[in-house]
Structures are given as C-alpha cells and as structure tokens.
Specification:
Layout (H helix, E strand, L loop, with lengths): L2 E3 L26 E4 L15 E5 L4 E7 L4 E6 L4 E6 L3 E6 L19 E3 L5 E5 L4 E6 L4 E6 L1 E2 L2 E2 L6 E3 L5 E5 L19 E5 L5 E5 L5 E6 L5 E6 L6 E7 L5 E9 L1 H5 L9 E3 L5 E5 L2 E5 L5 E6 L4 E7 L4 E6 L2 E6 L8
Antiparallel strand pairs: 1-11, 2-25, 3-28, 4-5, 5-6, 6-7, 8-9, 9-10, 10-11, 12-13, 14-15, 15-16, 16-17, 18-19, 19-20, 20-21, 22-23, 23-24, 24-25, 26-27, 27-28
Length: 339
C-alpha cells in the first residue's frame, strides 16, 4: 500500500440555494414525481418535494452519508473537490484536491468519484483521477491506496464502489477519466471491469463484458449485486447472483432503459442505492428511477437533467441526489437499507 498526502482548504461557498442554518430552512423546489405504479405511493409520499440545496458545480457525483458526523459528502469530479453539506453549516469544502495532485494531469476528470464509508466510518473513494481505490484518514488527510493495479496494469478510472458485510469491497472501472475513453493510449487494461478487493488486498476480476460499468449496490440480503451500464447502445441495470465465497454467478438484465433513452430523456444508467425493501433508486434517463427487485419501473423522481447518483441520509428516509450541477434532496416513506 502507498500513501498520498492531500490538503484541506478553508471552507468555500458555491452558489448555495438558501444557506442552511436549521432543519426548518426552506429551499426552492424543482421537478416532479412521475408515478407509473401504485406501489410507488408506499415509497414516496404524494406531497413529496424535490428541494435544491446547492448548485454551481461542474458535475456533482458520489454522495455518501456519514452517520457519526451527520454529514453528506459528495464529489465534484472535474473540479477535484469533495464537498460537505450539513443542515447546520450548509456547504463547505471537505477535501481539495480530492484526486490528482501534480501538474500536467493526463486525464479528463481529475477528482474523486463515488464515495462510501468502511466499517469504522472512514471515507473510501473511487479515486478517479489517480486511477485507484483509496481510503482517507481525514484526521491527517492522508490517503492509503487499497487497489491501484490489476495484474500489474493500472485501472482505467474507478467510478463507484460498495462494501459487503464481509469487508470485501466491490467497484466499477470504466474509462471516463481517460481523455480518449476506451481508445486512450494510457488505457492499460483492454476492458472495463468490475472488481472485488478482499480485506487482505487480494483483487479479483468479476465482470468484463460491460462497456461502461458505473453504479454498484447490493440487495439488502447481499445475495444480488446490481451494476448499471452507462452505455447508450445498451443502457441497462444488471443483476448478478452473489455466491457464498463472494464471487458472482449468473447475470441478468434487471431493467432496460433503451425506450427512455430513445425518448431523449437526459442521462444514462448511473449511480444507485437500494432501500430496505430491495427497491433500486437509480440515476438514469430523466432523474432517479425507482425499480422494484423484480425489475418493474415504478416511477421516476424527475429532475429534468442528467442525474449521477444518490444516497440515503438523515434517518434513512431522506434521499440526497447529485443532478448535473446541483445537490437535491427529497423525503421518502421508505428508508435506505442499513438504517
């Protein structure tokens, strides 16, 4: 393992939609809820509002809720920054640079992407710009590389990640951080993969037949791994059986968004989270799609623009969403798995 020291800048405000001082703060509303199945009413209240908490980002991504700090962290990938949002303080810089740290960067997206936390509450990131998976000690702001190469070759640009209760970490590795994407001469692996890293650092390749594997999440019982494919020629969410040893078995298409893409709805299958009932809340064409464990599209939280990712927070019934240049939230009836 290697370490990389990163710097923490003073808090910096963006264009914040109503600086947050209390939970009673009122925020502008946008978008609407598209209800395709009555089952959605048990998950999203009829009077639910999509609130805009902040905007002005280049591309907001990878939100994660840290329970012990009661804070939301999320990435702005092009601007090489992780932001913190809390109800009491609003928006501040948490880490900058969050990814690449030296002059003359070779890639197109320098910062961190997907974020998660480990069993001890430490931030673990898809260190997109540095082409690695890293854990952050945010008392010293030092990174430790957990995975940087597969069979001696550098990863493309890790995108999203999720822990299993065993301590195994699963992550996706599309080429979005490379200037030439799949044709970039700096691409060392011939494929875009999904990988597993065990607690002792062993790395195994699980999937290599998706062009742009992106979001990743487990079902509540951890028997299914969901992976989104942000490929306009095959915009699908895949479901894979998880074997007892952590490897993957048969894969199947859970939901195909081709029809939505043809409708010119903005966005492609992207980051996702799963609620306590096993429903997927998944960034995709038009906003956050709500998909049942059986693959039925129940409805969409329509943001009107490409929506990268989401995370359950607060008591588990708030869904925070990163949509293009905005940070949004909505209150739900359901709660996220693990709350």
């Amino acid at each position: 393992m290697t370490t990389l020291r990163a710097s923490l800048l003073a808090p910096l405000m963006l264009l914040v939609a109503g600086f947050a001082n209390t939970h009673a703060q009122t925020y502008p509303a946008l978008g609407h809820i598209e209800r395709l199945d009555p089952a959605l009413d048990a998950l999203i209240p009829r009077d639910a509002r999509i609130e805009k908490l902040a905007d002005g980002f280049a591309w907001a991504e990878g939100p994660v809720w840290r329970k012990q700090n009661r804070e939301l962290l999320f990435s702005d990938v092009p601007r090489n920054t992780i932001y913190r949002w809390t109800a009491a303080q609003g928006l501040t810089v948490f880490l900058r640079p969050s990814g690449y740290t030296v002059p003359n960067p070779p890639g197109r997206e320098l910062g961190s992407n997907g974020l998660t936390v480990d069993a001890h509450g430490a931030v673990v990131m898809a260190d997109h710009g540095n082409r690695q998976i890293a854990r952050l000690d945010d008392s010293l702001f030092v990174k430790t590389t957990l995975a940087g190469r597969y069979q001696g070759k550098r990863f493309n640009s890790p995108n999203d990640l999720v822990f299993r209760s065993s301590g195994d970490l699963y992550f996706t590795d599309p080429p979005y951080g490379l200037k030439g994407l799949s044709d970039d001469p700096a691409k060392e692996l011939k494929f875009s993969g999904v990988y597993r890293v065990t607690p002792n650092g062993q790395i195994s390749l699980l999937i290599q037949d998706l062009r742009f594997p992106n979001g990743i999440a487990f079902s509540p019982d951890e028997k299914t791994l969901y992976v989104s494919n942000s490929d306009e020629t095959r915009p699908v969410w895949m479901a894979y059986d998880v074997q007892p040893d952590g490897s993957l078995g048969r894969g199947r298409v859970l939901f195909d968004a081709t029809a939505l893409v043809r409708e010119k709805r903005p966005g492609l299958p992207d980051g996702l989270r799963v609620d306590q009932h096993g429903n997927l809340f998944a960034g995709g064409p038009g906003g956050i799609l709500v998909i049942s464990p059986q693959g039925k599209h129940l409805g969409t939280i329509v943001t009107g623009e490409p929506t990268a990712n989401c995370a359950f927070g607060d008591d588990g019934a708030t869904l925070y969403m990163t949509a293009n240049n905005k940070l949004l939230r909505i209150r739900l009836t359901t709660r996220g798995a693990g709350f």
